[in-house]
TrEMBL record:
This is Signal recognition particle receptor FtsY. Involved in targeting and insertion of nascent membrane proteins into the cytoplasmic membrane. Acts as a receptor for the complex formed by the signal recognition particle (SRP) and the ribosome-nascent chain (RNC). The lineage of its organism: Bacteria, Bacillati, Actinomycetota, Actinomycetes, Micrococcales. It is found in: Cell membrane; Cytoplasm. Residues 47-68 have a biased composition (Low complexity). It comes from the Bacteria. Keywords: Cell membrane, Cytoplasm, GTP-binding, Hydrolase, Membrane, Nucleotide-binding, Receptor, Transmembrane, Transmembrane helix. It is a peripheral membrane protein. SUPFAM superfamilies: Domain of the SRP/SRP receptor G-proteins (SSF47364), P-loop containing nucleoside triphosphate hydrolases (SSF52540). GTP binds at residues 193-200, 276-280, 338-341. Pfam families: SRP54, SRP54_N. The gene is ftsY. Residues 32-84 are annotated as: Disordered. It comes from Kineosphaera limosa NBRC 100340. GO terms for biological process: SRP-dependent cotranslational protein targeting to membrane.
Length: 386
């Protein structure tokens, strides 16, 4: 034992002990075993799953939970103003009426205007729905000019024809549409017409015309026979921020809805109330009587400032017959011609004005939301002869 102790305290003993300890330490580090996990980063929960973790997440504070999620308000459309609409009017009419203008100018500027040629001119005018009386009047005036001036130059003839057509359309007619609030009430517009003329769509487009002129508009859905008509009108209004008064009951009394719309317009300080009515055949007495009732009921609450008759320009002379009947029942003050860009028969403008004695105030040019424009005689004639 003493010899062992002497060895451990000797230099060699100390070296052996130190060597054993170093080898043991190295072997211990190399042996696989349990390692201490690294410290978690701050604010991260590293607890294993347990009852607390499987429970429902904590509710937000009371104030935050009480706030409803409000969807963003829809972006309202900005309707096109009248000036740009008129530019498109001329371009579209020129494209659809080229046959009319070309054939007339070819006949008048052909250098030989004998009796047969004049008859061809008159036939062309009548075929455009100008009407026999108006066509004869126009041809007689052109004959007098040719006889007096002794010329058939195409540009000269075009100028004369332009002047005479504008005169026939009568630019002196008042084509303004009532759209301003009057003292204590809004202007009231009643829109009527037969089935299939695009009447409800026209009312929606007319609302856009008014909004573009910064008027406060209210719509009345008095076409209660078709729920889809009220839905359609409400959709048109919503696109430009215009409210619609309607009944949720299909077949409700249209006169009552019209009355409520005017009342709501008075109470909401609207500038104008536009009332859509059901399309009706002009030869159905009961339907026309109902239209008369709508007018009478509205007038118990407010005068009616405009009765606009919507006519399909492609119906030609049949449209004139429709216009006569409506004028007898509701005192039409203005005409809206739809689908004017789809026909070469632009003469209906002259025909309907001469027959009813009321002006064409608006024209529909296509399917777009802003394809309704105020009617301007000079622009219309230029488009026909372009």
């Amino acid at each position: 034992m003493d010899s062992v102790l002497d060895f451990l305290y000797s230099v060699w003993g100390i070296a052996v002990v130190v060597g054993v300890l170093v080898v043991g330490l190295i072997v211990g580090l190399m042996r696989p075993g349990r390692r201490r996990p690294p410290a978690p980063p701050p604010d991260v929960d590293v607890r294993g799953p347990g009852p607390a973790d499987t429970a429902a997440p904590e509710a937000p504070p009371h104030d935050a939970a009480a706030q409803p999620s409000t969807p963003p308000a829809p972006t309202l459309e900005r309707p096109e103003r009248a000036g740009r609409r008129m530019q498109r009017l001329r371009a579209r009419l020129a494209r659809s009426n080229t046959a009319f203008g070309r054939s007339l100018l070819a006949l008048l500027g052909g250098g030989k205007l004998d009796e047969e040629a004049w008859e061809d001119v008159e036939d062309t005018l009548i075929a455009s729905d100008l009407g026999v009386e108006a066509a004869t009047q126009l041809v007689d005036k052109l004959k007098q000019r040719v006889s007096a001036e002794g010329t058939t130059d195409e540009e000269t003839m075009r100028g004369w024809l332009r002047e005479d057509l504008i005169e026939l359309i009568d630019p002196s007619m008042d084509r303004r549409i009532s759209s301003r609030r009057l003292e204590d009430r809004p202007a009231v517009l009643l829109v009527v017409g037969v089935n299939g003329t695009g009447k409800t769509t026209t009312v929606g487009k007319l609302a856009r015309v008014m909004v573009a002129e910064e008027r406060k508009v209210l719509l009345g859905a008095a076409d209660t026979f078709r729920a889809a008509a009220a839905d359609q009108l409400q959709t048109w209004g919503a696109r430009v921020g215009v409210d619609t008064i309607r009944s949720d009951k299909e077949g409700a009394d249209p006169a009552a809805v019209a009355f409520d719309a005017v009342k709501a317009g008075q109470e909401s300080d609207a500038d104008v109330v536009i009332i859509d009515t059901a399309g009706r055949l002009h030869n159905k007495a009961n339907l026309m009587d109902e239209l008369g009732k709508i007018k009478r009921v509205i007038e118990k609450r407010s005068p009616i400032d405009e009765v606009l008759l919507v006519l399909d320009a492609t119906t030609g002379q049949n449209g004139l017959k429709q216009a006569e009947v409506f004028a007898q029942v509701v005192n039409v003050t203005g005409i809206v011609l739809t689908k004017l860009d789809g026909t070469a028969k632009g003469g209906i403008v002259v025909g309907v004005q001469r027959q009813l004695g009321v002006p064409v105030k608006l024209v529909g040019l296509g399917e777009g939301p802003d394809d309704l424009a105020p009617f301007d005689p000079a622009t219309f004639v230029d488009a026909l002869l372009d």
